[in-house]
What we know:
Layout: E1 11-19, E2 25-33, E3 39-45, H1 50-59, E4 61-64, E5 77-80, H2 84-103
Antiparallel strand pairs: 1-2, 2-3, 4-5
Amino acid sequence: MGKVAGKPLSVDTNLNILQNGLGDVFVEIVLTFSEGGIEEKILLNGNKSLDFFESMGQTSILALSSPRSHFGKDNVFMIQLPKPEKIEYALDIIKKGLGKKTNSF
């Protein structure tokens, strides 16, 4: 994130949804920054991150910080997601997957 800090840029955000048919849903968030050719990938277990995706669906904002940051001492990088329907789509798939999980033996 240090390479793009303080620079005007846009971020293309894609959600890739991976599922195995047994109720396990993973969401790969791919962030492509217009400045510096940087691409970041974040893989989340959708089954365990339902609250995260519901919050992101309500706000259409993704906030990132360094894993080495200390609360209140470093900046947070905020991205407004241009297509909230992508989050709603991911939420629907996650919830359907959770339904399969609870119905399996």
